[in-house]
Amino acid sequence: MKLVIAIIQPHKLEDVKAELYKADINLITVSEVLGHGRQMGVTEVYRGVKETGNLLRKVRLEIGVNDTFLQPTIDAIIKGARSSEVGDGKIFVLDMKECIRISSGEKGPVAIG
Ligand SMILES: Nc1ncnc2c1ncn2[C@@H]1O[C@H](COP(=O)(O)OP(=O)(O)OP(=O)(O)O)[C@@H](O)[C@H]1O
Ligand SMILES: [Mg+2]
User: Is the distance from the beta carbon of residue 89 to the nearest atom of ligand 1 less than 6 Å?
Assistant: First the structure.
């Protein structure tokens, strides 16, 4: 099991969601966050909303997946979020030790989705 964390441009959220749904990935957590990458928020300002200092508005996605869904998830995020410009975002893949569905007590891959 993996936890995929992706930081994307806010205006790409709907495109990324559409690509995820196409790949049958339907469970997702979305947060509004602030951040900057290696340009330190400077050269990217013309395309982002500068919030405070050099921090730009970004959207953070968290998606827990079984291993077979890892690559399709990555592919869908890239397809929806890439403009080939700086600031398109980043994907982090973490090993996920456990997943527990609170309503049923199910654990492991069956609890993911
Ligand atoms: N190493 C990192 N650790 C934590 N957050 C990061 C990291 N790299 C990027 N981010 C987050 O992802 C957002 C988008 O990153 P961004 O796409 O600008 O990365 P980059 O490394 O600067 O690549 P690029 O040159 O394509 O812009 C940042 O605003 C920040 O919130
Ligand atoms: Mg950058």
Answer: yes
Contact partners, residue 21, CB within 8 Å, separation at least 6: none
CATH number for the domain harbouring residue 65: 3.30.70.120
41 lines ligand 1 (CB under 6 A): no
Give the pLDDT band of residue 48 (cuts 50, 70, 90): low
Q: Which of 90, 91, 93, 94 to probe ligand 1 with, by most ligand atoms within 8 A of CB? A: 90
- Does ligand 1 have an atom closer than 6 angstroms to the CB of 77? no
64 and 113 Cβ atoms separated by less than 8 Å:
yes
42 — pLDDT class (breaks 50, 70, 90): confident
Provide the domain count of the chain. Answer: 1
Closest CA relative to residue 103, chosen from 95, 92, 111, 93: 111
Residue numbers of the domain that contains 41: 2-112
Which pTM was predicted? 0.94
Residue-level pLDDT at 66:
97
